């Protein structure tokens, strides 16, 4: 049974870790979650602007490149902090998942 507890201890729960011994991990998870939420909002806004035709071809190119670079950086940071997409989708209880 102890082996199963160890497996469950490292399994993503969708909640921020509040253990004082793991405060750094919980903080990095929270910060990365906020950054990912903002990244997704920026991406959606950019797509709305592209679809509405309010951007020039050059602006579309720049926005696309910036979004790709941002996504790459997020992947690097998730690797550094040993997080995955499930870790960034916080369970808000009765409100459901954040993302």
Using the alpha-carbon principal axes, give the shape.
elongated
Note the beta-strand portion: under 5%
Structure classification? mainly alpha
The number of E-state strands comes to 0
Mean pLDDT: 80
Largest sheet: none
SS summary, helix count: 4
State the helical fraction.
55-70%
- Spatial extent as radius of gyration: 17 Å
Order of helices and strands: HHHH
Low-confidence stretches: 1-8
Tell me the distance between the termini: 33 Å
Give a quick rundown of the structure:
The protein is mainly alpha-helical and 99 residues long.
Describe this structure in words.
This protein is mainly alpha-helical and 99 residues long. It is 67% helix and 0% strand. The protein has helices at residues 2-9, 23-52, 57-80, 85-88.
């Amino acid at each position: 049974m102890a082996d199963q507890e160890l497996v469950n201890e490292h399994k993503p729960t969708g909640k921020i870790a509040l253990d004082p011994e793991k405060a750094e991990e919980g903080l990095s998870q929270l910060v990365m979650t906020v950054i990912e939420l903002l990244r997704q909002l920026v991406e959606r806004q950019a797509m709305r602007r592209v679809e509405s035709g309010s951007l020039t071809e050059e602006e579309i190119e720049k926005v696309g490149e910036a979004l790709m670079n941002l996504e790459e950086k997020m992947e690097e940071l998730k690797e550094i902090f040993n997080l995955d997409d499930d870790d960034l989708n916080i369970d808000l209880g009765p409100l459901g998942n954040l993302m």
